[in-house]
């Protein structure tokens, strides 16, 4: 009698049988305080541990979702928008109401998106933290990850354009407050009705570092090394 074995019997496992979940992102920063303030304002992330050299922040039951490290020897980036690395992190609201209300809250606090895009499966507003990292605040327009995943995989629409049209959040807000449903807003945004008066020509973020260095030239020296490591 021949025993039938699975592909895992003699061959390396191609992927985890139980895949791990994404838990947190870690950023190197020269200004822990400014980054803590930004992520608390934008996404409600509060410090679990907070020190001059590091902070660990969470906005749910996890011990942390964002970590911030100010390590010795760290120095400012060069041409950050065009450097290889992380483009943005993303946070998702479970309702259109919560998402658009958050836009109003941040606008009234003086913070507006750098660019806003209707990707098809999400409507997304992209902010920029003090170090120049992008932060996407999104809402799933299908309200069902299985459906939005299927749409990304199968739709001709997404295969032809993975970015989608830009929209002006103020125009979206006005339409919604005037009685348009979220689905109507989504349809109209996809049709280009809410395009900003001055659309951005690129989805890259601006580089905050030239202005920061001009205001504080000492930043160019980086985070000091401990005395025993200085050269």
From TrEMBL:
Residues 187-209 are annotated as: Disordered. InterPro entries: Glyas_Bleomycin-R_OHBP_Dase (IPR029068), Glyas_Fos-R_dOase_dom (IPR004360), GlyoxalaseI/FosfomycinResist (IPR050383), VOC_core (IPR037523). It comes from Pseudonocardia zijingensis. It comes from the Bacteria. This is VOC domain-containing protein. Gene3D superfamilies: 2,3-Dihydroxybiphenyl 1,2-Dioxygenase, domain 1 (3.10.180.10). Residues 21-140 form the VOC domain.
């Amino acid at each position: 009698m021949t025993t039938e074995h699975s592909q895992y019997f003699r061959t390396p496992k191609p992927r985890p049988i139980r895949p791990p979940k994404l838990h947190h992102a870690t950023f190197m920063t020269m200004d822990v305080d400014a980054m803590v303030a930004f992520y608390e304002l934008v996404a409600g992330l509060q410090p679990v541990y907070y020190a001059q050299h590091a902070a660990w922040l969470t906005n749910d039951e996890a011990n942390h979702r964002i970590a911030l490290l100010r390590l010795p020897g760290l120095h400012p980036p060069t041409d950050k928008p065009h450097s290889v690395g992380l483009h943005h992190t993303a946070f998702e609201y479970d309702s259109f109401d919560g998402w658009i209300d958050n836009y109003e809250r941040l606008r009234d606090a003086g913070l507006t998106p750098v660019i806003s895009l209707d990707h098809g499966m999400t409507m997304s507003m992209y902010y920029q933290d003090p170090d120049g990292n992008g932060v996407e605040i999104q809402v799933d327009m299908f309200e069902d990850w299985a459906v939005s995943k299927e749409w990304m995989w199968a739709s001709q629409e997404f295969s032809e354009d993975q970015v989608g049209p830009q929209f002006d959040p103020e125009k979206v807000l006005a339409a919604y407050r005037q009685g348009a449903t979220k689905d109507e807003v989504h349809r109209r945004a996809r049709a280009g009705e809410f395009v900003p008066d001055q659309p951005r020509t690129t989805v890259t973020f601006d580089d905050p570092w030239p202005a920061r260095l001009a205001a504080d030239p000492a930043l160019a020296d980086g985070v000091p090394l401990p005395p025993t490591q200085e050269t």
